[in-house]
Amino acid sequence: MLQVENLKVNAILEMDQVKIEANKVTCIIGKSGSGKSTFLRLLNQLTSPDEGNIYFKEQDITELDPIQLRRMITMVPQTPVIFPGTVRDNLLVGQTLSGMDPTTDSQLMQVLNRMFLNKSLDMPADDLSGGEKQRLALARAMLLSAEVFLLDEPSSALDNTTATEVIDAFTAFVKESNKTMVMITHDLQLAERIADATIDMNQYSLSLDRKEYSNE
Ligand SMILES: Nc1ncnc2c1ncn2[C@@H]1O[C@H](COP(=O)(O)OP(=O)(O)OP(=O)(O)O)[C@@H](O)[C@H]1O
């Protein structure tokens, strides 16, 4: 579904051939600073490589309109983007922007419940805690018609139990709707449990201290 060929971002990463399969969960692991977020940002053109190509369904992504590309490949950043307004406004913002019919309140409550967010749709979104905002951003992503979800450490502000529940629920959503998920995580146990495939950025990194990495 996504394929990388001879990709280079100067001084940050170099990847010869990497494939991400459709309808699978791929976890991105690696040390802090190894280039995990950079790799994710390359996949929906938030960053451009210095060399090489990225293909989405065999088409070079530079030939696609970035806005359209991001409708198909959507990113949930580590720090959630929360817009002024209520929880409802925030859930509907992607749909409004892409001209989709807004979802009913009962459907909105369903996605909130799936993300274990037991809050009123009328609550100002800015009053949510950091971890609640992350779950709101994940619930919002579930309402989009994207094919690929890029998740950058989606559970970084959640305690372990909530993180497990939320990631498992999002993974179940991805599987049952035949979507593709690419998730950065520091949690190797989590990666082992949910990933169909794992990409270890340490091996592609130009930014790590190589001495430290090779333990010499
Ligand atoms: N815009 C930029 N300009 C210059 N260097 C950058 C830029 N963005 C990232 N870097 C550098 O590239 C390297 C990889 O950064 P990146 O954020 O991709 O790593 P990461 O693996 O996601 O790290 P973490 O786990 O700490 O979030 C780092 O050394 C970082 O300082």
From TrEMBL:
Coiled coil: none annotated. Gene3D superfamilies: P-loop containing nucleotide triphosphate hydrolases. InterPro entries: AAA+_ATPase, ABC_transporter-like_ATP-bd, ABC_transporter-like_CS, P-loop_NTPase. Residues 2-216 form the ABC transporter domain. Pfam families: ABC_tran. Keywords: ATP-binding, Nucleotide-binding, Transport. GO terms for molecular function: ATP binding; ATP hydrolysis activity. PANTHER family: ABC TRANSPORTER I FAMILY MEMBER 17 (PTHR43423:SF1). This is L-cystine import ATP-binding protein TcyC. It comes from Virgibacillus massiliensis. The lineage of its organism: Bacteria, Bacillati, Bacillota, Bacilli, Bacillales. The gene is tcyC.
